[in-house]
Specification:
Structural class: alpha+beta
Radius of gyration: 28 Å
Strand content: 5-15%
Keywords: Signal
InterPro entries: Metalloenz_LuxS/M16 (IPR011249), MPP/UQCRC_Complex (IPR050361), Pept_M16_N (IPR011765), Peptidase_M16_C (IPR007863)
Organism: Acinetobacter guerrae
CATH topology of the largest domain: Cytochrome Bc1 Complex, Chain A, domain 1
Protein name: Insulinase family protein
CATH class of the largest domain: Alpha Beta
GO molecular function: metal ion binding
Distance between the termini: 89 Å
């Protein structure tokens, strides 16, 4: 019995050598060192893994005669290929097809798989399923994104790509499919009235952007989508879903030549067309703009913000770090500490920069009880003012930087994540080595760099404040915000009231 117990103990230690750094060294020394030699050798993996944690995948920037940017990451771990076609054809391009046609990009994305000249919607779905492929089309504010995931087997890969190109080039956008989307949109609009955060989001974009292409919701409105016809959807495809208005991202079990051949096939199979023109710059607003959305609830929902920066702004990384400190890092952020930890006003308070082709939005948001609304807004605004005016806390800066570096590998933790990163890098014209240089650039940022970026791009005196609540005292709130900006006045003391100190 004793010998069998020793055999079991010894075998269990050898079975899991990768956990050697947590095994009691005294136990190891009592066993045959020849059997456990691999354990001591593998303990060095701990240091190797630390060095490789931040190592981003190598990105190939494949050149071609069509001048269509193609980024590729080889990944031999799984027999899978991910492809993303990113067109400069998001909802910001809706009115390039016709005045007031908000929602046409989203409509085209929703109807793309509803049938072509050769296949019905059911046949398209069945063929992708038989190939073990996943296919999706989605419209965003900047981008129109087509994604395909399929096995790397050459026959299945070729069949899936052919079917993807069939859908892109020959979707029919039938009136019956349009009517179905109209019905679904009307249901969505009714549900929207029950979602205060979506109502605020729409109001914020319309208020900050005015007549700019970013102003309207991606889904459009009930009135605008009624104007959309199959002919207009085909015009959208012919004008914007073209080779010269896209970039390609490929990740998976291919070599560079195979990836290059695949990308060229896609380019050749699409109309060449022309790139979309640059978007105009939106006009920033000055002062405070308070908007109220009547909403029956014991909770009040608050968002305040102003126009921010584009994705290509040189201060983008410094502001990403600053935002994590202000309201993007959970309980360690300033907004969370002031609004939740110290005062219990809310469960969560957050800030964010939306990064787009032209100036995006900087905003902070939270919800609170109706009777705490006015005070909570004053505290949130004061926290923002102090963050801009006071020196950056170096200890918090280092803690936040460390957290971002630890989280960084999640951005390329899977083939799908890698491919999404490649699509964004290609769309916004970032360098191919952006991911590999990210940790180094993040470490180089000083407290002064962050402070200068904050004071340059965050304006507590120019805020649009949108509140969804039962009631709101707008004049009182405006005065509170102005009072926050005023420096405290020194206390005036009457000399006659001062008494000499006794010895």
């Amino acid at each position: 019995m004793k010998n069998s117990l020793l055999i079991i103990l010894s075998s269990s230690l050898i079975t899991f050598p990768v956990f050697a750094d947590i095994v009691d060294q005294n136990i190891l020394e009592q066993n045959d060192s020849s059997q456990l030699k691999s354990v001591s050798q593998l303990s060095s993996l701990k240091n190797i893994l630390k060095r490789q944690t931040e190592q981003a995948p190598y990105v190939h920037d494949l050149k071609n005669a069509y001048q269509v940017r193609t980024l590729f990451v080889e990944s031999q771990a799984l027999p899978i290929v991910d492809i993303q076609l990113t067109f400069n054809a998001g909802s910001a391009r809706d009115e390039s097809i016709g005045k007031g046609l908000f929602g046409i990009a989203n409509m085209a994305a929703n109807l793309m798989t509803e049938g072509t000249e050769n296949y019905s919607a059911a046949q398209i779905a069945n063929q992708f399923e038989q190939l073990g492929a996943q296919f999706s089309v989605k419209a965003y504010r900047d981008m129109f994104v087509v994604r395909l995931r399929v096995m790397s087997d050459p026959q299945k890969l070729e069949s899936a790509i052919n079917l993807m190109l069939e859908v892109l080039n020959h979707a029919t956008f039938t009136p019956s499919s349009l009517n179905l989307v109209f019905s679904n949109t009307q249901v969505g609009q009714r549900q929207l009235q029950e979602n205060p955060n979506r109502l605020i989001d729409i109001k914020l974009y319309r208020t900050l952007y005015g007549t700019h292409p970013y102003a309207q919701p991606i889904t459009g409105t009930n009135a605008s989508i009624r104007k959309i016809t199959p002919a207009l959807l085909k015009q959208f495809r012919e004008q914007l879903l073209v080779a010269q208005n896209m970039n390609i991202a490929i990740t998976g079990q291919l070599n560079t030549q195979q990836a290059s051949d695949l990308s060229i096939k896609i380019m050749q199979s699409l109309p060449q067309g022309h790139p979309a023109p640059a978007l105009p710059l939106p006009e920033p607003q000055r002062g405070f703009n308070i908007q109220h959305i009547p909403y029956q609830s014991t909770q009040a929902y608050v968002t305040m913000g102003h126009l921010g920066i584009s994705r290509n702004d040189p201060d983008q990384l410094a502001l990403e770090l600053a935002n994590q400190m202000l309201g993007g890092s959970g309980f360690n952020s300033l907004l969370m500490k002031e609004l939740r930890v110290k005062r219990g006003f809310t469960y969560g308070a957050y800030s964010a920069f939306s990064l787009t082709q032209t100036d995006g939005i900087f905003s902070l948001n939270y919800s609170t009880k109706q009777d705490q609304l006015m005070e909570s807004i004053q505290v949130a605004h004061k926290t923002l003012i102090n963050f801009v005016k006071q020196p950056i806390d170096k200890k918090q800066l280092e803690e936040t930087r460390s957290g971002m570096l630890r989280a960084f590998p999640m951005s390329f933790s899977s083939n799908a994540n890698i491919n999404a990163q490649l699509g964004s890098i290609g769309f916004y014209g970032l360098p191919a080595d952006y991911l590999s240089k990210y940790p180094e650039q993040l470490r180089k940022l000083t407290a002064l760099d962050v402070q200068q970026a904050v004071r340059k791009h965050i304006y507590p005196e120019n805020l649009t404040v949108i509140v969804a609540s039962e009631k709101l005292e707008k004049e009182k709130l405006l005065q509170n915000l102005k009072d926050n900006l005023s420096p405290p006045q020194p206390v005036q003391i009457d000399p006659e009231t001062i008494h000499p100190l006794t010895p």
